[in-house]
Amino acid sequence: MTTPFFSIWAPPAQPTCRGQAAMAVEGGMKCVKFLLYVLLLAFCACAVGLIAVGVATQLVLNQTMTRGATPSFLLPVVIIAVGAFLFLVAFVGCCGACKENYCLMITFAIFLSLIMLVEVAAAIAGYVFRDKVRSEFNKDFRQQMKNYPKANETASILDKMQKDFKCCGAANYTDWEKIPTMASRVPDSCCVNITNNCGVHFVVKDIHTEGCVEKIAAWLRKNVLVVAAAALGIAFVEILGIVLACCLVKSIRSGYEVM
Length: 259
Prior knowledge:
Belongs to the tetraspanin (TM4SF) family. This protein is an all-alpha fold.
């Protein structure tokens, strides 16, 4: 006697609500991990950029200002330190995301939050000490002017600054009259059309008359919006990284609770 077909056929088992939820969590976790990997690459790029900016700033300050434990010289050190620390944190985050390690991801989120706090503190310090930095630059620029006749390295640095910014002296071209051996002349880099000995017995209309301190300060004010936009972009990426790290931590913890 044959068994009816309907008695041996059964519909395929449907996934339970718990299984569907687990699949959804797994898919969401993969998406979070992918986005986190992209952000970690962005962090590495930001870290390298910060280190490069810090080193370049330190080199410029070493050439144009007198060394000392001042806010001007501490700022590049802070930038380099933040860049190196951000690279290390990105490495920790990459290891934590790859291994889905709860402790490493918590460490990543905490360190990234600390980096944001340091960056905010550096921005506040830069704003608070902006006038001090300018006065210090003015003082050091005048000191370099005094060394101009006897130091070839100093002369080349000041000449490059005056040529690039089309300026002359600290406040204006008359500052050179106070320098010994420069009473009746200005450096050739002050000339509108630079030629050999064009600064000797100069005519005012043939030289740049504006001072370099104000010219450089104006250039910094003009470019501060670019710096601010870059800083906001980095801050946004860091906040997004913290959020994604917290999401991944929550998923890892839920996985442990299920087990």
